[in-house]
Amino acid sequence: MGKAIPIIIVIALAVYALFDVIATPRDRVRYLPKPLWVLVVLVPAIGVAAWLVFGKVRTKPAGPPRPQRPIARGPDDDPDFLRGL
């Protein structure tokens, strides 16, 4: 049983990396085209490690800024409420 654990881990990482290559958009893949990365990932441990380290751009592209939510304040901290007293 102890000898099977590393094999199970390598297979699980290979399946994860294969699905990750397939699901990653083309503009986020580095160095090789996606079909070649699929072949590289099929190499048991080295291919998976190469994909995880070099294959994908890890930073998200900058999108539009998120709108700021107004800060919730109590009535005693709200100047508009205090002015109306």
Automatic annotation (TrEMBL):
Membrane topology, as annotated, equals: Multi-pass membrane protein
Q: Which residues cross the membrane?
A: 6-24, 36-54
Q: Which UniProt keywords apply?
A: Cell membrane, Membrane, Transmembrane, Transmembrane helix
The chain positions of domain Cardiolipin synthase N-terminal read 12-55
State the Pfam families in the record. Answer: PLDc_N (PF13396)
GO CC terms in record: plasma membrane
Q: Where is this region: Disordered?
A: 58-85
State the compartments where it is located. Answer: Cell membrane
Protein name, as recorded: PLDc_N domain-containing protein
The organism of origin for this protein: Mumia zhuanghuii
